[in-house]
Amino acid sequence: MIPKIRDAQYAGTVYNTLPSLPQVAFAGRSNVGKSSLINALVNRKALVKTSKQPGKTRNINFFKVDLWACPPCTWWTCRATGTPGCPWA
What we know:
Low-confidence stretches: none
Largest sheet: 4 strands, mixed
Radius of gyration: 14 Å
Number of helices: 1
Strand order of the largest sheet: 1-3-4-2
Structural class: mainly beta
Shape: globular
Number of strands: 4
Number of domains: 1
Order of helices and strands: EEHEE
Oligomer: single chain
Mean pLDDT: 87
Strand content: 35-45%
Distance between the termini: 36 Å
């Protein structure tokens, strides 16, 4: 079963103190669509800022995601993490 997203919101950067949550990090080369992938997964157009210009993401950004997952059919909270692209890309 595909989990259903209830809510997704910006949670902070690597410089903020955040609660410990399960985490999924998206890493890869510059300008490959990491931010667009997070937007698509949470079904939002502008949760994560995107750009056609490589290197716009400068920090590690965290996004809190609440989802319904079965089993055990309960709400889960996790964190999606957007990372800057690799500089050698």
